[in-house]
Specification:
The radius of gyration is 20 Å and the shape is globular. The chain has one domain (about 10-300). The protein has a four-stranded antiparallel sheet with strand order 1-2-3-4. With about 300 residues, it is an alpha+beta fold. The chain is built from eleven helices and four strands. It has helices at about 45, 55-80, 90-120, 125-150, 155-175, 180-185, 195-210, 215-245, 250-265, 270-290, 295-300; strands spanning about 10, 15-20, 20-30, 35-40.
């Protein structure tokens, strides 16, 4: 069975799904019906030569996924707020939002821990311990952040759609019928989840930053920015490898366990109508790529 390329993402009152050639977003309109948008994916990113280069492919695809995800999120907000059903997926506002989100993420999860540890670094006797403490602080900030925002009602609904997205992809990968009653039985945790990816980034950050010793605070902050694309490329290959061997290797399952556990914070059990939206998005992608089984059977394929 063909695999989806990189999965999907939860948005406001909906789900975005990405395939090999197409993406689709389905959102539940306040009136009750499902609104859908579909568009082709850039071939150079998802099917070109660079998509086969280890380490580099992760950076390019993650950057495109971030931009695509932010635009889908903004579109879903327009639909969920019942402002407009046909909106633009591009423009200065979209890319300004991406830039601000990146700046906030880098500042909160990478620079702030380095800055805090740098303030007390003279009291830490070992360079290795200094970097480990920074990593622990970074991980603690991530877990605290996820734990706090999960209590916000709107975020809890997004996390429930996140669970719906995972269940739908898992059901498709196991050949189950794409119906809410069948999809509901699957786990809301998935090996290729962005939550697990972020955790791996933070853990690998500890290992690589430990090799840099204990530079002055300014250089420490600069090095953390420089390390982000390097660590992201390594982490992407790690997640891809673990997902590939997850069903065949005890070691792969053990390595995936921390990321799967962290997803308990970023996913909630979805309601059946949420699964309908997620299934709608996946079917749109499969239909666009000629992989929707019920249509293939109807055509005698």
């Amino acid at each position: 069975m063909p695999e989806l390329n990189y999965g999907g993402q939860a948005v406001l009152e909906g789900v975005m799904m990405r395939g090999v050639r197409e993406m689709a977003v389905c959102v539940r309109h306040p009136a009750g019906h499902i609104v859908t948008h579909r568009e082709p994916l850039p071939g150079a990113v998802y099917r070109g030569r660079i998509a086969r280069w280890p380490f580099f492919r992760g950076l390019v695809m993650l950057w495109d996924a971030l931009g695509l995800g932010m635009r889908a999120l903004m579109w879903s907000a327009d639909v969920a707020l019942s402002e407009e059903e046909e909106v633009s997926f591009s423009g200065p506002l979209a890319w300004t939002t991406v830039a601000l989100s990146l700046a906030l993420g880098v500042g909160l999860f990478f620079l702030l821990p380095a800055f805090l540890v740098g303030l007390v670094d003279r009291y830490i006797h070992s360079a290795l311990l200094s970097n480990v403490v920074e990593g622990v602080v970074r991980l603690g900030i991530l877990i605290l952040y996820l734990w706090i925002i999960r209590f916000l009602p709107d975020v809890r609904r997004v996390f429930a759609y996140h669970g719906a997205e995972h269940k739908t992809i898992a059901a498709y990968e196991h050949g189950a019928p794409l119906e809410p009653s069948a999809v509901m039985a699957y786990s809301r945790a998935h090996t290729r989840c962005g939550t697990g990816f972020l955790l791996i980034v933070l853990l690998i950050f500890i290992l690589i930053s430990s090799l840099l010793g204990r530079p002055p605070l300014a250089l420490r902050l600069l090095s953390r920015i420089v390390l982000i694309p390097i660590v992201a490329g390594i982490s992407y290959e790690f997640i891809k490898l673990v997902a590939k061997y997850y069903d065949r290797s005890v070691l792969a399952r053990a390595l995936a366990l921390p990321g799967l556990a962290l997803q308990r914070l970023t996913t909630q059990e979805p309601e059946p109508d949420m699964l309908e939206v997620s299934i709608c998005a996946l079917k749109e992608v499969l239909r666009a790529e000629g992989l929707l089984q019920e249509e293939r059977e109807a055509q005698g394929v």
